[in-house]
Design goal:
Family (chain B): Belongs to the TRM112 family.
Pfam families (chain B): Trm112p (PF03966)
Order of helices and strands of chain A: HHEHEHEEHEHEE
Strand order of the largest sheet of chain B: 1-2-3-4
Order of helices and strands of chain B: HEHHHEEE
Shape of chain A: globular
Number of helices of chain A: 6
Protein name (chain B): Multifunctional methyltransferase subunit TRM112-like protein At1g78190
Distance between the termini of chain B: 24 Å
Pfam families (chain A): PrmA (PF06325)
Helix content of chain B: 25-40%
Number of helices of chain B: 4
Distance between the termini of chain A: 31 Å
Number of strands of chain B: 4
Oligomer: heterodimer
Radius of gyration of chain B: 15 Å
Organism (chain B): Camelina sativa
Strand order of the largest sheet of chain A: 3-2-1-4-5-7-6
Strand content of chain B: 15-25%
Largest interface: A-B, 26 and 30 residues
Largest sheet of chain B: 4 strands, antiparallel
Strand content of chain A: 25-35%
Helix content of chain A: 25-40%
Largest sheet of chain A: 7 strands, mixed
Number of strands of chain A: 7
């Protein structure tokens, strides 16, 4: 599948109908999602024929992208039942098979080495302080090969240090810097649209 | 929920020793065919908890799996086995039912194929 085709398909997905601000529910746009998964597969072979977990899957954008790139099995994890309903519809619409689990990913212990790759667009910690740093260790415990994650560029040094020192990372690399377009989703948003610099990270667990 | 997912879920309640696997109490099961990928399956044999898979499949009504996975050296030519493995791991869906912790009896409901693994505050 070509990148443009993937981006096009992801653009048709349903997104949050009533986003919950406390969960930092923001859609992962097709531009970022397609590039993230395309890079994971084309540069590193981490998606096709692999078991891929999507932490904080929301409406399932990254999960669907992984499935479209022929992951052998995709599992989406999220705490919010409404998002999971939308994610289920999205998977049906695109005719891909994805398993979903409702849980608090920071409290769930996944057994064994079944998951090869974790992909995620975790909360940035703007509502619940430190939320960005809860998803990462959870992902590092589960992935046997690689974790792909988005974090604000402003937190780059902090993330790198934490990953290598505390979260069992053998390597922590920024693959590229992307602009995350956030449309005005919540009442407290003053500007019509805002652009945040985010890093696409690849971490390898030891 | 397919058995590949069941094979990683455990009961994280504080103090529980026998967390895995969760027992399956099915109410509605559906079967959805997916493409057979023998290379992927051979790669998975070593990673799957075999007993959990066999017991899980049995509780979903599929009894064709052997008690032990065959020797990996013979897998190359054992297509009938790989087909059974494929079917149990990836084609059986628990749509409605529960996952039950063997130690505490705590039930995690499964609705529309999605298990609810949220713990209560006092459990973790």
């Amino acid at each position: 599948m070509k990148l443009k085709q993937l981006e096009g398909l992801l653009g048709d997905l349903e997104q949050f109908s009533n986003p919950k601000v406390e969960l930092e529910q923001y859609p992962t746009g097709p531009h970022i999602a397609s590039r993230m998964l395309f890079t994971a597969e084309n540069s590193y072979g981490d998606i096709t024929d692999k078991v891929v977990a999507d932490f904080g899957c929301g409406c399932g954008t990254l999960s669907v992208a992984a499935a479209l790139l022929d992951a052998a099995s995709v599992i989406g994890f999220d705490i919010d039942p409404q998002s999971l309903e939308t994610a289920t519809l999205n998977a049906e619409e695109l005719e891909v098979e994805i398993d979903f689990v409702q849980c608090d990913i920071t409290k769930l212990e996944l057994k064994g080495q079944i998951v090869d790759t974790v992909v995620m667009n975790p909360p940035f910690g703007t509502r619940k302080k430190g939320a960005d740093m809860e998803f990462l260790p959870a992902a590092m415990k589960v992935a046997s090969h690689a974790v792909y994650s988005l974090h604000k560029t402003s937190t780059r040094e902090h993330i790198k240090r934490a990953a290598l020192r505390d979260f069992n990372a053998k390597s922590a690399e920024v693959l590229c810097e992307l602009r995350y377009d956030l449309p005005k989703l919540y009442k407290f948003h003053k500007r019509k649209e805002v652009d945040i610099a985010v890093d696409l990270w690849r971490f390898e667990p030891k | 929920m397919r058995l590949i997912v069941h094979n990683m879920l455990s009961c994280n309640i504080r103090g529980v020793v026998n967390k895995f696997p969760l027992r399956i109490e099915p109410e509605k099961i559906i079967v959805k065919e997916v493409d057979f990928n023998p290379d992927f399956l051979k790669h998975m044999i070593a990673k799957i908890d075999w007993k959990a898979l066999v017991d899980g499949a049995r509780s979903m009504g599929y009894t064709e799996l052997p008690d032990h996975a065959p020797d990996t050296t013979t897998l190359e030519s054992d297509e009938p086995f790989l087909r059974k493995f494929h079917h149990s791991l990836l084609e059986l869906h628990l749509e409605e039912g529960s996952l039950v912790c063997s130690e505490t009896g705590r039930k995690f409901p499964v609705n529309k194929g999605i298990p609810n693994m949220l713990f209560h505050e006092d459990e973790v």
